[in-house]
Amino acid sequence: MVAVSYYCPRCGAVAELDRDPYLADKSVTPFPLEGWTYASPDDDFESDDWDGVRLDCGTAHDGLLWARPPTEDERRSDEEPGCGEAFYLNFVRFEDGREVEGEAESERVRLSETLGPQNPGGPGGPSGPGFSR
Length: 133
Ligand SMILES: [Zn+2]
What we know:
Elements: E1 2-7, E2 14-19, E3 25-29, E4 38-39, E5 52-56, E6 64-67, E7 86-91, E8 94-95, E9 98-99, H1 105-114
Parallel strand pairs: 4-5
Antiparallel strand pairs: 1-2, 2-6, 3-7, 5-7, 8-9
Bound molecules: zinc ion (ZN).
Zinc ion binds near residues 11, 13 and 82.
């Protein structure tokens, strides 16, 4: 197992999670991807039953530690890290040998409003990385 660092997309707190070194991560998102199944850090999240891990920012578990953002103001150094909001670590998924593209539900709503004649082929197309922002 190796400690891998992930950054909260909301507050920048650093999560250090023990991971199997060979597993591939797809992205970290503030919302779950549609169709992904998330484990908690206490589950056996490396098993094939899960597509990712839900991390509650600042909530420590066995194998999961938190640190404040490295850029945060020194005056706040006595505060506990984390904003308390959940974010999602998404593993790479394959079906029939092809990588499955995840899509955040909230992102799809926003894209359906912004895609139009003035925005042809904008970010977030089926092959775009739009969900990861
Ligand atoms: Zn946070």
